[in-house]
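Hey L., structure's done. Input below.
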Amino acid sequence: MNDMTAGSPVRIIIKFTIPILLGNLLQLAYSVIDMRLVGTFLGDHALAAVGATSVMYTLFIGFFMGIANGFAVTTARHFGGKNMEKVHISFVSSIVMGAVLSVSISILCLLFLGPIMRLLNVPDSIFAESAGYIRIIIAGLLITMLYDILIASARAIGDSVTPLLTLFLSVGLNIAGDILLLGVLHTGVWGAALATVAAQLITAVVCWIYILRKYYFYRYRVGDLRRLEQPMMVAMMKTGLSMALMSSLISIGSFVLQTAINGLGNSYIVAQSAARRITEILMSVFVAVGHTMATYCSQNLGADRWDRIHEGMKAGYWITCLWCAVVLIIVYTLAPKLICLITGSSDLVMIHAATQYLRIDSLLYVLVAVIFVQRNSMQGIGDTVTPLISSGIEMAGKIILAFTLVPALGYFGVILVEPIVWIVMIIPLILKVRTWER
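Output:
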């Protein structure tokens, strides 16, 4: 446990962020290794099949992480207020509501998978392989949801080490499963999805046992379901859906953008997939600091320490903006080599397109840094509206530009979409934060 309501905000934020960052990097490293293994064992055709539905997978992951983190905001607030009974009830509520949501979404997506993939404009040449891959991912969403809730609940009480340890296990199992299913059994792309779901299942069980043994206030008690509080569940669902919708709005915009990319051909599908993998790694510092800010602000709100909230946000700005300078050095010296490394492909069109994407977009990463700090801090203090407005702008911007810039400029239009959107979506966040300073 880690009480974030006392001590140096900078030291607390850095200490809490590092395990989250390592965990994010570990998870992203697996996604890169997974892509490389698919390319090595199955070739460029299989890479395109996985890449064509990667935005759908990202949508699911973002939605469930948003739900879990939104639920955990309530847990963190009660932990900051030293009310351990409320901490317990919020944890049980998270499990119950998360299970119901994930099962419902899985059923709906499986029923309408064909139309969804047609809407995504998945090419006929890779349609069957893409469907086989994403179908297994969807079937395992309950496991994904419960795993995310366990991780978010640990972070809510200031434990960012347990999630890191469980990720080590998950990634190890994932890689072993990929090698077995793809390299030894030659299953095809669906084997990569099966390895992911199986690894999450084993890791979730281990994480469940460990957390319940370590933290007495998370252990199940007889009659827990009768102690659930409707007002708390409504508040948790409001925050959870807000954070999930924030992520979903972003992913829906990316979903529409992917439909335009899928019409450009396999080289550009792989280029986008590779560039996004690298982008996710480079932005992992922003994500980690964002998760930290949500927990930090929520705990300090519970303790009624607004002065510490302001100090923490300033620390978040400095950490993320310094990282932006490091990113520029990495991108402008190593981008082509990184792309070749993660794809194993020698397609010059693909390498050039992905490199151009990284070098242009990274110039405005400073905007992304500010967006992550402000948006997550707002969620931590219970502002569920402003982040949604910003994310709605992002979604609308991606959709509009996907139908205007991409047809006119091709893949270069894809490259310009996000920088343009960042410039617009940061405006409501800055305006809201300025009202706190008055």
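The mean pLDDT is 82. The CA atoms of residues 134 and 361 lie 28 Å apart.

-- N.
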